């Protein structure tokens, strides 16, 4: 069964909105942490999004994969960078990461702009 990654993100957006409304202080704190972690310093934001994607694959989090594939694309990541990132995730997470790396490839195919 294939996942519709754009639809998954849309559905998650609704749930996350409810969570932000129900636990606003926690979610503001999480948002501030995310902004601080993603700020470009020694590593650029694209590299940080690829790291987040690798962690999402290694810990087997489809929701993380969806959001970080999209964010990596928005930061200018290439398919080649995606594949190297997934190679590292597989190296660190073994067999289960192979399966979740395939989810990231599928998400990329659905989210990345199509090149003519």
UniProtKB/TrEMBL annotation:
Residues 24-106 form the Carboxymuconolactone decarboxylase-like domain. GO terms for molecular function: peroxiredoxin activity. Gene3D superfamilies: AhpD-like. It holds the Pfam family CMD. InterPro entries: AhpD-like (IPR029032), AhpD_core (IPR004675), CMD-like (IPR003779). PANTHER family: ALKYL HYDROPEROXIDE REDUCTASE AHPD (PTHR33930), BLR3452 PROTEIN (PTHR33930:SF2). This is Carboxymuconolactone decarboxylase. The lineage of its organism: Bacteria, Pseudomonadati, Pseudomonadota, Alphaproteobacteria, Hyphomicrobiales.
